[in-house]
Every structure is written in C-alpha cells, then in structure tokens.
Amino acid sequence: MKFILTGVPGAGKSTICSKLVEKTSDIHIVNYGDMIFEEAKKLYSNIIQAREDTRKLPRKKYKDIQIEAAKKISLIEGNVIIDTHMSLKTPYGFYPGLIPETLHIIQPDGIIILEFNPKDVITRRERDRATGKRLTRDRESEDEIVLHQQVNRMYAISYSAINQCYIKIIDLTWPQEYEFQHTEFAAEKILQLLNFRI
Amino acid sequence: MKFILTGVPGAGKSTICSKLVEKTSDIHIVNYGDMIFEEAKKLYSNIIQAREDTRKLPRKKYKDIQIEAAKKISLIEGNVIIDTHMSLKTPYGFYPGLIPETLHIIQPDGIIILEFNPKDVITRRERDRATGKRLTRDRESEDEIVLHQQVNRMYAISYSAINQCYIKIIDLTWPQEYEFQHTEFAAEKILQLLNFRI
Amino acid sequence: MKFILTGVPGAGKSTICSKLVEKTSDIHIVNYGDMIFEEAKKLYSNIIQAREDTRKLPRKKYKDIQIEAAKKISLIEGNVIIDTHMSLKTPYGFYPGLIPETLHIIQPDGIIILEFNPKDVITRRERDRATGKRLTRDRESEDEIVLHQQVNRMYAISYSAINQCYIKIIDLTWPQEYEFQHTEFAAEKILQLLNFRI
Q1: Do B92 and A196 touch (CB under 8 A)?
Q2: Which of C135, C198, C189 is closest to C7 using CA atoms?
C-alpha cells in the first residue's frame, strides 16, 4: 500500500511518522521534498545548494525532477508513506505539491489529510520557534491556517478525481486529553489503512 | 441531454427519479452502480455475487468495468439521467464515483448535485431503518453528512473542470411545507434542465 | 509573466485592470471573453452577432474557438493579465470558464482570485443598474454571491492541480476606509506578482 500523507507545516506530521515507525517495522517513510532535493543536487549541483533552491529551477526542469523522484518512490515495495504537502504557501500564492504525472507514476492507494485545530498549530509552531526551529517562517493567523487547510482539501480531491484514489481526512481538531494523543490517534488510523487490502 | 444525478445515500434520490418518470416519458434513468454490477457479473462470475463485491476487484479491472458501463450509457439516445455517486464514503475514506475516462465517454451535459439538510437525511434514514432498509449502513452525524456533501461538491467541480460540463446545485435544505415537496421541487428543476438545449 | 485574473461579475475587476494600466506600461490586459467573441464572429458570422451568441455554438465548436483564442494569448510577450471568469453562472448551473487544453496552451504562471464582500458586490451592482448598466442581469442575494465565490475557488484549484500554477487569493472582504481602496490594494498586489520571477 502507498499513501500520501499531508498536513500544514509545523503541526506534527513528522512526529506522527516517527510514531508509525515505532509501531511497525513494515513501513517505509519517504519525504518527497527531500527526494526532490537529492535529485536536483545531482543534476544541477551548480545551482542547488539548499532545499529552497529547488523552487528556483525553471518550471520544466522542476517538473522533470518531480517525475524522477516519483519514479524512485514507485519502485519501493511494501507499505510506503509519502510525507509531502498538498500545497505550498508562498508569498505568490498556493502552489500545488503534486502534478498529475507524478500521481500517475506513484499510483497511491490514497491521500491522507491530517486536519488540525489552528490554535494547536500556532501553539506548536511557537514552541518550535522558542527552541530555535522555524525561525525563518512567517507567523500565520488562525484564519490563514483554516484557509490553507481548506485549500489542501480541494487539491487532494482534485488529485483523487484525476487519479482515482481514496481521500482519508483524519480529524485532529478535538481537544487532547494528554500530550501526543493526536499523534497516537493519527498513527493508529494510518496503521488501519495500511492493513486494509483494497 | 445527459445529466449525472448525485446526492448522499438515503436522502431521497430514487424517489426523485420515480417522480421524474411520472412526469415525462421522454427520459431514461440508469443506475450506474447497477450497470457496473451487471458488467462485473458477466466478466467475473466466480468472484462477483453481490453488488458490494465489485469493489473487491483490482483497481485496473474495476476501471475497465466502469469504462464498459460508460460506453453502454453513451449509446442511449434521448434524455438520460445517470443516477450515481460523486464519492463513496468508506471506512478507508472517500472514493471517487467517476473517473476522467468515463466522463470523457459519457460526455454529460451537466452534473446535478442534490443538497439536503443533514437533519432531513438522518430522519429519512431512520425511517428506512425502521422499515428494515439500510440496516447494514453506519449511522452518520449531521457533521459527517455536511462533510460528505462538501466533498461531493468538490469532486463535481473537479470533474466539470476536467470535462467541461454544467454543475447544477439543487438546494433542498429549506424546510418542506408538505411531504415530498422537495421531491416535487427537484423533479421540476431537473425537467427544466432537460428542456434546455445547450 | 502571465496571470489569469478572475472575480465575480460586477464587483470591480475592470476598474482594477484600469488601475494596473495607470501604474505600469509593461502590461497587456486581454479580455478572454472578447477574444472568444472575435474568433467566433470570424468563423460563424451568420450565427454570432452579440457576445452572448458564442454560448449557443455546439460544445465542440465553442471549444475550438476557446483554443484559438488561447493560442493568440500564448503569443503575447511580456506581462499579460487575462481577464476572465473561473465559472459562469447560468440558469442551468455553473459552467467552467476554462478547459485543460486552453490552460495547457496559455501556461499561466498563476490564477488570481479576487474575493469580495457580497454586500459590496450588491451595492456596486445596484449603482451600475442605477446608471443603466447590468440591466439584463439577475439580482443575486449575498448567499448566492458567497456560493459563486466558493465555486470559483474550487475551479481555480482544480485547474492549478491539472496544470500546476500558483493560486493567489486577494482578499477584498475588509471594509474600505476610502473609495477605491480595494482597487488600489488589488492593483498593488498584482504588480508585486508581476515583478516576481518564478
């Protein structure tokens, strides 16, 4: 089974991935952004030094790299979680994280959308900031996070319509009773999906 | 004219179809799920006994059957209403009811989305349950029905963007003054669409 | 850079385009509807007299004309703003303003969505009506304008998913402190997009 795992940045997606690895050995977690960066460095070592540099490539070259990374993912056997973004929020607007061509190559069984309470996202990001992480990113209001999550849902459904796969919304907007309850809950839900044979 | 008619299960779509047949003889109503089931039985008689079994087929085979059923629909002349679902709600998430290929074959003039008041949907489903219908289906909360209707809207618009057709939302969320007022209203709206020459 | 500029009718899109031209000479503003009308008149001079007549053409012919107009736009160099609609609201439902083929030809860098406060839209339309403009158009309620803006967002995201481009939502729902503050604000935002090199 192959699932694309998405959620707004800084909300807890990586923690959920770590929890998944803790719970099962039968899983490969790949970070699509990292793979794109690796491909880009190989092909354009003169331009690409940092992760952000990949976005500076001309659209056609960026697309070719996305496709190369997708081909690598398609070769991984067993359960694969592709950690990526439905859309990137930039000063120039939202930019889709996937393209029909890469979906066609990866042939995911489904897209998992983690939906968080905007208040929780802000708290978590502030904590990261206090410990020196996420320093370069802009602060977002609750409304902006709500909008980004809505936009992500629409992208996910568009991709599902184009390339017929499941859309699983994991709702994490309810108040936690203890720390990492959302992490635990989401990891369990994802395991259930992996154990399902479509 | 060919229209795809959609709405959440157990809300009154079939009743609206019956009303349409009462009002005009110049109409063919086809149930896409039934047609897929018929095709599947013919090709895989060993696996497919019940309607639900079709979803157990491998994705590629399921797709081929969807395409075969779409070809049959494309051959029907005159006014055709294709009774189907924009998305199926499963424990594994929402699954699209159509694919770009089938839309391309059917070439619908439009997609009609019946949108109901979640309270009405729950009441209707409970009544069905009391009379022995829908016993195997899960109960849904109002929020879940709201979400499913939102998701269906997004699928419909994605399909319309891919294959350029009208999207007609028929709003049935207002309170009825008498029984079957929604049925009557929706049937009239659909007749108006059929009489329109695009 | 090429941007598609969209917003519900009668809300102030043309005024924003005029402001853009005032602010920079390095810009071409093309009205996609006008270009489609010109193409249609050339090819079907017997049928097409008024702008509305283009929609009476059979779907295949209308599509060919959309494609011809898109090819012309693709040849314009420099900064291009394509003034058009994400979807047309008709008595038969919403109809998409673009098709995957035309997007593929135009290759826009992004789609700009102007989102207005429904109250402002109604006020502006009434003012137009008082001066003899928009007389043939139906009056819309706030809810209807809200719905049309939501539908437009979904279309924009579907197109972005299909043809990978930015989606920039320019929020103009806040109360103006002086007349044409929204116009000024939107024009500035669009200029920023044009000065950005993707």
Answers
A1: yes
A2: C189
Contacts of C192 in chain A (CB under 8 A): 91
Shortest alpha-carbon distance between residue C3 and chain A (Å): 11
Helix (H, G, I), strand (E, B) or coil at C186: helix
C166/A90 Cβ within 8 A: yes
Which residues of A are less than 8 Å from C167 in CB distance? 87, 93-95, 151
d(CA C74, CA C76): 6
Question: Which residues of chain C have a CB within 8 Å of the CB of B112?
Answer: 93
Check the CA dihedral C75-C76-C80-C85 and report its sign: negative
List CB contacts of B100: < 8 A, sequence separation 6 or more: A161, A162, B159, B162, B163
**Closest to A82 in 3D by CA, of A19, A32, A15, A24:** A32
* B contact test, residue of C85, C86, C92, C165 with most B CBs within 10 A: C92
> Within 13 Å, how many C-alpha atoms sit on residue B93's CB side?
28
DSSP string of C52-114, one letter each residue: GGGGGS-HHHHHHHHHHHHHHHHH--S-EEEE--SEEEETTEEEES--HHHHHHH--SEEEEE
**Selection from B106, B88, B104 nearest residue B96 by Cα:** B88
Q: Is A175 on the interface with C (CB under 8 A)?
A: no
Burial of residue C138 (CB within 10 Å: 0-12, 13-18, 19+) is exposed
Taking an 8 Å cut-off on Cβ atoms, the answer to whether C198 and A59 are in contact is yes
The answer to whether the CB of A94 falls within 8 A of the CB of A117 is: no
Query: Is some CB atom of chain B closer than 8 A to the CB atom of A35?
Result: no
User: Is the Cβ–Cβ distance between A69 and A32 less than 8 Å?
Assistant: yes
Task: Tell me what ipTM this predicted complex has.
Answer: 0.93
What's the pLDDT at A197?
Answer: 58
Q: CA torsion sign, A150 to A153 to A154 to A155?
A: positive
Q: Which of C157, C165, C196 is opposite residue A155, by nearest beta carbon?
A: C157
Distance from CA of B100 to the nearest CA of A (A): 6
Local confidence pLDDT in tens for the 198 residues of chain B? 999 999 999 999 999 999 999 999 999 999 999 999 999 999 888 888 888 788 778 888 999 999 999 999 999 999 999 999 999 999 899 999 999 999 999 999 999 999 999 999 999 999 999 998 877 777 899 999 999 999 999 999 999 999 999 999 999 999 999 999 999 999 999 999 998 754
Kindly determine whether residue C93 and residue B168, on different chains, have CB atoms separated by under 8 Å: yes
